[in-house]
Write a structure and sequence with these properties.
Layout (H helix, E strand, L loop, with lengths): L9 E6 L6 H12 L14 E7 L3 E3 L5 E3 L2 E2 H6 L6 E4 L4 H8 L4 H11 L6 E5 L3 H8 L6 E2 L6 H15 L5 E2 L4 E6 L4 E6 L4 H13 L2 H11 L6
Parallel strand pairs: 1-2, 1-6, 2-5, 6-7, 7-11, 8-9
Antiparallel strand pairs: 3-4, 10-11
Length: 229
């Protein structure tokens, strides 16, 4: 009798910080929670294990809503090699500046994730203005990327500064629902999305990469989500 096939469960971290946009992280969380191997919403064989990462036990997001983390940044760094996907939500300008300008623990965690060496592809994905944080690290150099339509010029400025500071190629910033910027030399795929609802599209695309297009389509059907044409 053949042994049962063990399905891979991918570890996903969603990095939170004070002021993070609520839908930027609950949207992807909700999408991934509906992706399963057996396409059975009543008893799903889930593909993704999702944890909220934050510096403090309780994080006040936008609106404001207070959210409890699953794991601290300090503890997440100790098991950095276990994370297959890291999602960085956006937020208002003061919240983004608080992460980038202070070189805070969130910023340092992203840099650690970027430089973590692994033998298989990982995914770093930003939602909306979360791309500003990625851009500040220099990881978007030479990539084609996007963000909220109203923030495209701001992202260009961030990426130009990062290129001067860290080197690397010119970053192409374009208007899009989401962009797969390809894989870095270290084997990390960069995905950036536009604002809020665009994060649904990007996350469904991520799901298709890790499972199949049919599994992604089924999750969209469960969510009754139809992507804009």
């Amino acid at each position: 009798m053949a042994a049962a096939t063990v399905q891979r469960v991918y570890d996903v971290g969603i990095l939170l910080y004070p002021g993070a946009d609520l839908l930027d992280f609950t949207g992807p969380h909700g999408v991934l929670s509906h992706v399963s191997y057996n396409n059975n919403p009543a008893a799903p064989d889930r593909v993704f294990s999702i944890r909220l990462i934050a510096a403090h036990e309780w994080i006040t997001a936008s609106d404001p809503v207070t959210v409890k983390r699953h794991i601290s940044i300090a503890d997440a760094r100790k098991e950095l090699e276990n994370f297959d996907v890291l999602i960085v939500p956006g937020g208002p300008a003061p919240a983004i500046s608080g992460v980038v300008n202070a070189n805070g623990p969130e910023y340092e965690f992203i840099k650690s994730f970027i430089h973590e060496s692994r033998n298989e592809e990982r995914i770093l994905m930003s939602i909306c203005s979360g791309a500003f944080i990625l851009g500040a690290t220099g990881v978007l150099a030479g990539k084609t990327v996007t963000t909220h339509t109203m923030a495209l010029e701001g992202l260009r400025a961030i990426c130009q500064k990062a290129t001067k500071d860290f080197g690397g190629g010119q970053t192409k910033v374009m208007k899009a629902r989401y962009v797969d910027g390809g894989v870095t030399k270290s084997g990390m795929r960069i995905i950036t999305s536009g604002g809020i609802s665009c994060g649904f599209d990007a996350t469904l695309y991520l799901a298709s990469l890790k499972t199949s297009q049919s599994a992604s389509n089924f999750a969209a059907m469960v969510l009754e989500y139809i992507a804009p044409v």
